[in-house]
Write a structure and sequence with these properties.
This protein is of the alpha/beta class and 420 residues long. The chain has helices at 2-13, 24-30, 46-63, 74-84, 94-97, 112-125, 144-158, 163-173, 180-189, 195-211, 217-239, 245-265, 277-280, 296-304, 344-350, 394-397, and strands spanning 15-16, 35-38, 67-70, 135-138, 271-274, 309-323, 332-336, 356-359, 371-374, 389-392, 400-407, 418-419. Strands 1, 2, 3, 4, 5, 6, 7, 8, 11 and 12 form a ten-stranded mixed β-sheet that branches. Pfam families: Erythro_esteras.
């Protein structure tokens, strides 16, 4: 009966999504929010990227949003940022700017959908002054060595006095041969941590940016790379010990990075965030809370208040997706089977086999019961679907939901796609 009631409510409330113009309802509902979090149920679905891009265009043009922050590495995303802002010595073509997305899973950002959106951002920024150009940044925590490389390269090029602290931090990590697991074991169990070195480096670079009066984006880049080094060190150290700590380090890092970028753009800056539903959908509305886990959506709502943070989830009933069958494996175009009976995606399909939008802005009672909600990672096996459903109170997890009945895999720029 629970599922039947939800189906009936969806039929009453759903708005058809047939073109980009139908996104008006979400744009209007966002109101004056400072943060708009746009999710995805997988990292390999074309429609999630294209719909987020369309929403982001509207938010930039109509509501003056300042930058996009994504679940990606700072160094590679900063290369793309330099391109779309037309910095001197930046990439000449968008494909060249996307070459830095060379760490697995490459398809997350090196794909046709991101390339097309980057071209739009490039054109949008053409006639804007430097302070008004929209930025594109990676706020994830994985790029420890790449971030250290970027810091050393820039400080050496500029003859910076912070070079000594940077070299000391780099030398501390050097014996681990860029293997995060080796470092994590040594730091967690053998007391061979580089924490002191990277914290000292971050402190020095923070002070340097403050002296620059916050106007130099290269100083921001050095500081954010140092922040990655600090929190990546903590992440890899906690990862080998198990438990929720590594997840929490990662999501707290993403929020800290967001706050620093927002501060760089000024007190009136507004941010768009592209991340998986598991990061942007409030963790308190899922079983993550019982496991001691927090996420970006929860932390931003707690820091800024619900009225300043608008969260949009995305999902699909069936289709295809880019993923791999093991960590670091070959990317493949895999089938996404029909959603399990009684799941959120299943009731959306039963309410009508069409793309739709739901807003959770009144009479939320029908959507206040926990229901299984599918999450597909970069590692996926469609034959073992049962563990991919996260119990969620949908109306508490999101402010709105975008549903694609039958989705297709995104189009990576590199490597031949294997078909499952």
């Amino acid at each position: 009966m629970k599922a039947e009631k939800i189906v009936d409510e969806i039929k009453k409330r759903a708005m058809k999504l047939e073109s980009a113009d139908d996104l008006d309802a979400i744009v209007q509902a966002i109101g004056d929010a400072d943060f708009v979090l746009l999710g995805e149920a997988s990292h390999g679905t074309s429609e999630f990227y294209t719909l987020r891009a369309e929403l982001s265009k509207r938010l930039i043009v109509e509501k003056g949003f300042s930058f996009i922050a994504v679940e990606g590495d700072w160094p590679s995303c900063y290369t793309l940022n330099r391109y779309i802002k037309q910095y001197e010595d930046s990439a000449v073509k968008v494909r060249e700017a996307l070459r830095d997305f060379n760490r697995w899973p490459t398809w997350m950002w090196a794909n046709n959908e991101v390339m097309n959106y980057a071209e739009w951002l490039y054109d949008y920024n053409k006639n804007k002054t430097d302070g008004r150009k929209v930025g594109f940044y990676g706020i994830d925590v994985y790029s420890l060595w790449e971030s250290m490389d970027e810091i050393l390269s820039h400080l050496k090029k500029t003859g910076s006095p912070e070079m000594e602290a940077a070299q000391k931090a780099f030398d501390c990590f050097d014996p681990y041969k860029r293997d995060p697991q080796t470092y994590g074991v040594s730091a967690a169990f053998l007391s061979e941590s580089c924490e002191e070195e990277v914290v000292k480096l971050l402190t020095d670079l923070q002070a340097k940016r403050q002296l620059s009066k916050g106007e130099d984006e290269s100083a921001l880049s050095d500081e954010l790379n140092a922040l990655v080094a600090v929190n990546a060190e903590r992440y890899y150290r906690s990862m080998v010990q198990g438990g929720p700590d590594s997840w929490n380090v990662r999501d707290r890092h993403m929020v800290e990075a967001l706050n620093r970028i927002k501060a760089f753009y000024g007190p009136d800056a507004k941010a768009i965030v592209w991340e998986h539903n598991t990061h942007i959908g409030d963790a308190r509305a899922t079983d993550m809370e019982a496991d001691g886990m927090v996420n970006v959506g929860q932390l931003l709502r707690e820091q800024y208040g619900d009225n300043r943070v608008y969260v949009v989830g995305f999902g699909t009933h069936r289709g295809t997706v880019i993923a791999a069958d093991q960590w670091g494996g070959e990317m493949q175009a895999m089938m996404v089977p029909e959603a399990q009976s009684g799941s959120w995606e299943d009731v959306l399909h039963k309410a009508g086999a069409y793309d739709k939008i739901l807003l959770f802005d009144h009479d939320l009672e029908p959507f206040q019961v926990p229901i299984g909600h599918r999450a597909i990672g970069v590692v996926y096996n469609p034959r073992r679907e049962r563990g991919n459903y996260v119990p969620s109170v949908i109306a508490r997890r999101y402010d709105a939901f975008v549903y694609v009945d039958e989705s297709k895999a995104l189009a990576p720029l590199r490597q031949e796609i294997l078909h499952y």
